[in-house]
């Protein structure tokens, strides 16, 4: 029996393929971002790094201010594939321990390390060896290696250590994970009692045609393949045990941002997709930023 040809990067499937397994998704995401890191990233981002006009715009939308950007090595900027800046609304304090779930090239580690100071620490967790090496390089270039630790580990894994962090941040990563409840279980466990989340991620709002959703899931295109409705996403966070959840900002992706997010980490690394189907997601893909707390027992 002839097997159907599996679409690969640069090819658009003629019709919706069967849903990918969790293992297939994990392997494809690891491959895409590993190759991207190996090449040193790209100057073309998946989301604007800073507000087009003012610092107040950047802060309002959870992006990077010009003051932030001068602190960040160029390599980290080229590797950045986020949808916000969780350090801008995490209320980080001197001496705190911050764990970055899916730290990538380390852009948020740099900013967090500056905020927690010499008495604090940042922990970068990523399952891509090349990203971990790039993040180490970035922290060295920023002169912050002495404030950073790294763990090569899947953020869905129960091997994530418990009760070691005051804050968990994550920037446009959890949408890539097939088991979001697993991620938030690990985020809850890694936090000390009284610890908190500051998350920037991609969700859907409004009605999305089921066939369009299935199509993007079948190729797991960029940050659109794993998106779920915002209310469903936030329920997962609450079900993991978090309280005092507050959405601090939302940004509806414009057509250019949507195209870039669907191609993340770049068109060279992700499968091509139907522009017609992508157009049906216009106005429905949202970058949401929120905070939540692990209450003390």
Quick overview:
By secondary structure, this protein is of the alpha/beta class. It has helices at residues 22-38, 55-60, 66-69, 74-79, 107-116, 129-141, 180-190, 210-219, 230-239, 255-263, 275-279; strands spanning 97-101, 121-126, 148-152, 165-171, 191-204, 243-252, 285-293.
Descriptive overview:
With 297 residues, the chain is an alpha/beta fold. It has one domain (22-293): Rossmann fold (3-Layer(aba) Sandwich). 34% of the residues lie in helices and 19% in strands. The chain has eleven helices and seven strands. It has helices at residues 22-38, 55-60, 66-69, 74-79, 107-116, 129-141, 180-190, 210-219, 230-239, 255-263, 275-279; strands at residues 97-101, 121-126, 148-152, 165-171, 191-204, 243-252, 285-293. It has a seven-stranded mixed sheet, sandwiched between helices. Helix 7 (180-190) links the parallel strand 4 (165-171) and strand 5 (191-204). Mean pLDDT is 89; it is low at 1-14 and 51-57.
